[in-house]
Amino acid sequence: MDAEGTFTFSVTKSLKARFGWLIAPRFSICLDIRDFHLLKSIKDFFGGIGIIKVSASQVYFDVNSVADLAKIISHFNLFPLQSSKRHMFHIFVILYNMYRAKEHLTLQGFLLAIAYINILNKPIRPDTLKAIIAKHGLLPCLVLPPVLFFNKIIIPSVWWIIGFICGEGSFTFFPFFLIKKKGLKELE
């Protein structure tokens, strides 16, 4: 999850929605199609919840149901994310709790949800955000709760390293003179 997972909320224009846009939670992991069986194992690990979708080159494990997302959230509360994605998880949980409590069905709650969604992973498309603000007013300012910052990350197991490298790592040959040429520095 630290490497390839996403906690997000979609914002979709809808004539049936109270304020003109539907918001919906989503947990997703996207991998190369070659790793289909890995996502199938993750789906099984979580008790078969969610769905697996396949495109030409990628495979997705998606969880959208509020009840199923509670299982995902519970897991990551017990086994916290180690990367900066931990911040996105906490914002997602705030939104998820608002969504479950149906706070997004009031104008104030809807605008607050949109403000949180706008800082979750990547901002809402500018044209969508502009249309929401034009119709309903400015978004409220957010005061984000503090998220525990780990000065020293304790790697929970070798499996975390393996999973993280599978998602974010690479093995390559990069000549040392190119490293200096690009201005990269070694840090402790």
Structure description:
With 188 residues, the chain is α+β, with helices and mostly antiparallel strands. The chain has a single domain, classed as Roll (Endonuclease I-creI). The protein is 43% helix and 16% strand. The chain has 7 helices and 4 strands, in the order ββαββαααααα. The protein has a 4-stranded antiparallel β-sheet. A hairpin with a 7-residue loop joins strand 1 and strand 2. Helix 3 runs antiparallel to helix 4. The longest helix is centred in the middle third of the chain and has 16 residues. The mean pLDDT is 87.
Topology readout:
Elements: E1 5-13, E2 21-32, H1 36-45, E3 51-54, E4 58-63, H2 66-78, H3 85-100, H4 107-119, H5 126-136, H6 158-168, H7 176-181
In a nutshell, what does this entry contain?
The protein is α+β, with helices and mostly antiparallel strands.
Q: Approximately how much helix is present in the residues?
A: 40-55%
Task: Identify the overall geometry.
Answer: globular
Q: Largest sheet, described in full?
A: 4 strands, antiparallel
Report the uncertain regions.
none
Task: Give the helix tally.
Answer: 7
At the third CATH level, what is the topology name? Endonuclease I-creI
Q: What is the topology, as strand order, of the major beta sheet? A: 1-2-4-3
